[in-house]
Amino acid sequence: MSxxxxxxxxxxxxxxxxxxxxxxxxxxxxxxxxxLIFMAAMLLxxxxxxxxxxxxxxxxxxxxxxxxxxxSKWATTVDVxxxxxxxxxxxxxxxxxxxxxxxxxxxxxxxxGLQEIADLHAKEDLLLxxxxxxxxxxxxxxxxxxxxxxxxxxxxxxxxxxxxxxxLMTGDSRPVAAMPLTNGFARTGYELDLARAKAVIGQRExxxx
Length: 209
Fold this sequence. Notes:
By secondary structure, the protein is mainly alpha-helical. Among the domains are: 35-66; 114-154, no CATH class. It has helices at 2-9, 13-16, 32-68, 90-102, 114-129, 145-155, 189-208, and strands at residues 132-135, 140-142. Strand 1 and strand 2 form a beta hairpin. The chain is extended, with a radius of gyration of 44 Å. Residues 1-7 have low confidence and may be disordered.
């Protein structure tokens, strides 16, 4: 019983380790020894890393110099900075344009490609709206698409052989194909702008006449 009382009267170790907050601030100072050790270790690490990098660089340069061989008039380093920028030459630019045009396909696009799309659509319009040979040796001719549509509307399309369909399950319904809202083709904004510009030029010419 007395041992139990002595244990109860002894102060708790956790309570004795609690800092004294009566002053409203920390009474102990920062330990500068740990900070100095950390800074010294960091400085040593930086110095060792720099020495290693310098040594690796020297070794690489020495290896490249050995592979290049001794210096000669054909292998010398020339400083081109005093020469400055080359002056522009209209003749040289013209020659470069000619070489660019003569360069074999496929070429790099010199613009955003809108003109190429417009040219492609113009070629397609010529094929769709005019007569042309599909195979002259066999006597096959392309006809305008409007005429082809009229002929198909008159004669109709060949009817496919009906396929036997399984009976529908309860709650199912047969899908119904709807007509598309568009034919899937649309002019680009660039082509529309060209068409508007041509229309304006035509109106001005008509007004002058």
